[in-house]
Amino acid sequence: PGLGTGVTPLTDRPMSFDAASLERAFAQQFVERRQLLKELRQYDDEKLLSLYEERKFLERRCNELHALHNGAVEGVCKLLKSRQGLLETAESNQEKLLGEIDGLEAKIAELQQQVADEKQQCHDAEQANEALQRKLEAVRPESHDKRTQEDATKDVPELKHKLDGVADEAEEATPEATDMAEPHKGTADQTPTSGEDIVELTKRLKM
């Protein structure tokens, strides 16, 4: 076959033993085959160049994908580490909060106990106050009478002085007034001995 070159194969040519014709025929076939090899080599070079470019592209793409993969793996590792750190921080904060909650609950219980103790103390104080009020109410009349008698006893000298002054004025005024004042003077000279007498004398002077 002439591989599409249009050259008639040697088997299809008429048999001839002409050396020159054979030489030309071999030379022509050699040229044709050389051209064919050249075309094949050029085709192979182009294909090899195309394959080399494709290989370079695929290699570059593989490197990019490898870098992306490494970045993704590194990012995932960082995320996992960050998540682990967040979990540890959250657990630590939770423990602190639980400890604070326990402390607050203990403080609340203590305050509640203090409030209960204060209420009990207030109740006891109210009961003691009521008992004192009852005692004061029971003692008040006696103390009032004693205080009245003591005050009246303290006023005796002043009352005597006033009665003496009234008697002197009556003596200077008229004999009748002197006669009337003498009983009062005698009464003033007599010191009252009881609280009731002193109270009665005080009322008379005020009148």
Structural class: mainly alpha
The profile of the biggest β sheet is: none
Q: What is the radius of gyration?
A: 72 Å
Task: Give the tally of β-strands.
Answer: 0
Distance between the amino and carboxyl termini: 175 Å
Give a summary of the structure in a few sentences.
With 207 residues, the protein is mainly α. Helix content is 87%, strand content 0%. The chain is built from 4 helices and no strands.
Topology:
Layout: H1 19-154, H2 156-173, H3 175-189, H4 195-206
Please, could you describe this protein's structure?
Residues 87-135 form a coiled coil. Residues 137-165 have a biased composition (Basic and acidic residues). Residues 137-207 are annotated as: Disordered. Keywords: Coiled coil. It is rod-shaped and about 210 Å long. The termini are far apart. Helices cover 87% and strands 0% of the residues. The chain is mainly alpha-helical and 207 residues long. The protein folds into two domains: 10-106; 155-207. It has helices spanning 19-154, 156-173, 175-189, 195-206. It has four helices and no strands.
